[in-house]
Amino acid sequence: MAISISDYHAHLQDDLKLNREYLKSHGSQKEGRKVFDRDSLEVSQLSKNREILMDRIKHTVVQSVASLSDMRAGILKEVREEKGQYGYLDVVNACGLSYARLYAEIEQRHESEEYYKADGTSLTKEEEIEWLDIQYEQEVEWQKSCARIAAQGQVIQGNIPEMPAKELEELDDSFYQAKDTYMKLHRESRQVGKPLVLQNYMFGSGRMYEMLNRLGNLKERVK
Predict the structure, then answer these.
(1) Which 3 state secondary structure label does DSSP give 114?
(2) What is the pTM of this model?
(3) 219: how many CB neighbours lie within 10 A of its CB?
(4) What gap in Å lies between CA 89 and CA 164, rounded to an integer?
(5) pLDDT-derived band of residue 25, with 50, 70 and 90 as boundaries?
(6) 128-181 pLDDT, tens digit each
(7) CB 198 within 8 A of CB 86
(8) How many CA atoms lie less than 13 Å away from 206 in the CB half-sphere?
């Protein structure tokens, strides 16, 4: 069967149309592939950014003014549940133990990883220890203030003749003796892998604790 020029021209037009459609389709596929690759890259980057963010959050330390007092309160709560009550000797020991436990946490935290402050800047071990020292000083002042206020009330009520100034000064020294003693215990316990637990160390005189426990203020508070 003979093919005319007009038929050839028609076939050529059809071929060109098919080629254009193929190229258009192929171009769309390539564009779609580019979009897919770009989206995949964005998702991958977002996932990576999320991992970085979660790691940064995990390694961010919010320095709380209450971390030491909260730990001390938890220790005294356990003492009260076990013995029914606690006295100033327990308070002094609980403060020393709280300091040593938080110090141990700081040491462990900075052994191999970097940590950050809430503003994103690097947080050093020395800065954390400095903040812990400040917390301990504030805790000691708060405990002394509570005892002083209770003593003033007892003087006003006529239950004691005068302010126990000597005992309050001795109480201050006892808190810092407790801190040093529990830090020594921490170093010894760390070497043998033993946990830090509350002791019944006597810091100061028995007379001091007898006088302070008579103030009665510990019965009204756990914190």
Answers:
(1) coil
(2) 0.71
(3) 11
(4) 16
(5) low
(6) 999 999 999 999 999 999 999 999 999 999 888 999 999 999 999 999 999 999
(7) no
(8) 1
Half-sphere exposure of 121 (CA within 13 A, CB side): 3
Length reported for the chain:
223
Tens-place pLDDT, residues 41-84: 665 665 555 554 444 444 455 556 579 999 999 999 999 999 99
- Do 123 and 116 contact (CB within 8 A), yes or no? yes
Please give the structure tokens belonging to residue 15. Answer: 């071929």
Task: Return d(Cα 99, Cα 72) in angstroms, integer.
Answer: 9
Backbone region of residue 12 per phi and psi (left: phi > 0; alpha: psi in -120 to 50; beta: other values) = alpha
Strand, helix or coil for residue 216: coil
Return the number of other C-beta atoms located less than 10 Å from residue 169's C-beta. Answer: 13
* C-alpha span between 79 and 4 (Å, rounded): 109
Q: Report phi then psi at 115, rounded to 5.
A: -125, 165
Helices (H), 110-160: 125-157
